[in-house]
Design a protein that fits this description.
CATH architecture: Up-down Bundle
Strand content: under 5%
Shape: globular
Distance between the termini: 37 Å
Low-confidence stretches: 441-448
Number of strands: 0
Mean pLDDT: 87
CATH superfamily: MFS general substrate transporter like domains
CATH topology: Growth Hormone, Chain: A
Order of helices and strands: HHHHHHHHHHHHHHHHHHH
Helix content: over 70%
Length: 451
């Protein structure tokens, strides 16, 4: 009987880890999608970046209600509901692709992200709980690794399906055939994603007793005090507000760079007229040269995978460094380097700037978990209120990308990186301020959320 239960736990953990992979994969597909809709619907950079806004605004709206939902229902019901909401988002994307309506694309992305937000609230503690308590940190780290793998693979498949024949440079036109192929690619991608998500929902339905028995007890603080009271508590803490602002800036900068990256690399001032990147085996293998001189939008879209892959590698390196360097100081170093890289790209440009821009992901790697834990250690609000507020602040991914899009539409893709540079400079100031504050909590306390 015990062996059967252990096998069931293992199967449940594998499925939960699949959820981590799925939301990482779906989130990073926004990057090639932004470039695709710009060409398909003939949009400005600002209008195309509304795709990122529609997705990430869900975090600002849904995070606290998701915590309240989890406090009222068992983990399995919350996860199944989140998965069904994600299926509804995918189906809306199918309708949008078939009707060729950009407004429906935005609606589909918002619904999809709402499901992902609820999923993250429920799945993080569940991944740690499904098995021997001694290995809870190992399980959550392993699940996060698969989330990073999803963010690496998403741009590759998205660029392959969405960007064939799509060109957005001034003077170029998207042919009807390329437009139809891109819409068909969007239809195909979200059709198969909806099928995978539906299968996961079915598994959780049949495994709901096992999952609920293994799930950690959820505090009823949100249910008892209400969302408004939790927000008021978070606003009463200076460090909760500072941490929320930091998360807002970090996510906004990371998402803005990722969603602009394909357009940036494809521009003539970077790789658009150069074959230099094909001289590097890793880049050449990822992009798959089409034989035409220069880097096409589709090839550039595939290269974006390295931006997210850098974050995956950086988490491994950062974990080792955090054992030797104080978290706040390491955050200050990483944010300063990221700011310097953005400024290099903005003011020097050239083929080398493409390599520098892709490398920013390496330094983004530790920012979210370190900001999260630094804030939890210093906040005078409860952990529930602080964590909920920090998750809500991920809405920065909805606010800053349109700003970067507006700037790029006016002064070009390279100079637009001044905006994320400013975000990283402010994050560096946050890290320096946090380093001066003494706290009683352990500096290596684990983060309660992932991004």
């Amino acid at each position: 009987m015990e062996k059967t239960q252990t096998g069931g736990m293992r199967a449940a953990f594998i499925t939960v880890t699949t959820l981590f992979f799925a939301w990482g994969f779906i989130t990073s597909m926004i990057d090639p999608l932004v470039a695709a809709v710009k060409g398909i619907f003939d949009l400005t950079d600002l209008q195309a970046q509304l795709s990122a806004s529609a997705f990430f605004i869900a975090y600002g709206i849904v995070s606290f209600p998701a915590a309240a939902l989890l406090s009222r229902f068992r983990s399995s019901k919350t996860i199944i509901g989140a998965l069904l909401l994600m299926v509804a988002g995918c189906l809306t994307m199918l309708v949008a692709a078939n009707l060729s309506v950009y407004t429906l694309v935005l609606a589909g992305l918002f619904i999809l992200a709402s499901g992902i937000t609820i999923l993250q609230v429920a799945a993080n503690p569940l991944a740690a709980a499904l098995g021997d308590p001694r290995y809870s940190h190992l399980r959550l780290t392993l699940s996060q690794a698969f989330n990073s793998l999803g963010t690496f693979l998403g741009p590759l498949l998205g660029a392959h399906l969405f960007l064939a024949g799509i060109e957005v440079k001034e003077g170029s036109a998207v042919t009807e055939a390329a437009r139809s192929n891109a819409l068909a690619g969007i239809d195909s991608a979200y059709f198969w994603i909806s099928g995978l998500i539906a299968a996961l929902a079915l598994f959780f339905f049949f495994s709901r007793r096992l999952v609920d028995n293994a799930a950690p007890a959820v505090s009823d603080a949100v249910a008892r005090r209400g969302v408004g009271a939790m927000l008021a508590e978070a606003f009463s803490s200076k460090w909760a507000l500072l941490g929320g602002a930091a998360i807002f800036l970090y996510v906004g900068a990371e998402v803005a760079i990722g969603t602009q990256m394909a357009l940036f690399l494809n521009s003539d001032g970077i790789w658009g007229q150069s074959d230099g990147p094909f001289g590097f085996p890793i880049l050449s293998g990822l992009m798959g040269s089409d034989g035409v001189p220069g880097v096409s939008l589709q090839e550039a879209g595939k290269a974006v995978a390295l931006y997210w892959g850098g974050a995956m590698v950086g988490r491994l390196i950062g974990s080792a460094l955090l054992a030797r360097v104080r978290a706040a100081r390491l955050l200050a170093i990483f944010t300063a380097i990221a700011a310097a890289m953005c400024l290099y790209v903005a003011f020097l440009g050239g083929v080398e700037a493409g390599y520098v821009a892709l490398s920013i992901g390496l330094f983004n790697s530790i920012m979210f978990p370190v900001i999260f834990t630094l804030t939890l250690e210093r906040s005078t609000a409860s952990e529930e209120a602080t964590s909920g507020f920090l998750c809500t602040a991920i809405v920065g991914g909805a606010a800053i990308p349109p700003l970067v899009g507006a700037v790029s539409g006016s002064v070009g893709y390279t100079l637009a990186l001044v905006v994320p540079a400013a975000c990283y400079i402010l994050l560096c100031l946050f890290a320096l301020a946090a380093d001066r504050v003494k706290v009683a909590a352990s500096a290596d306390a684990p983060a309660r959320a992932t991004h």
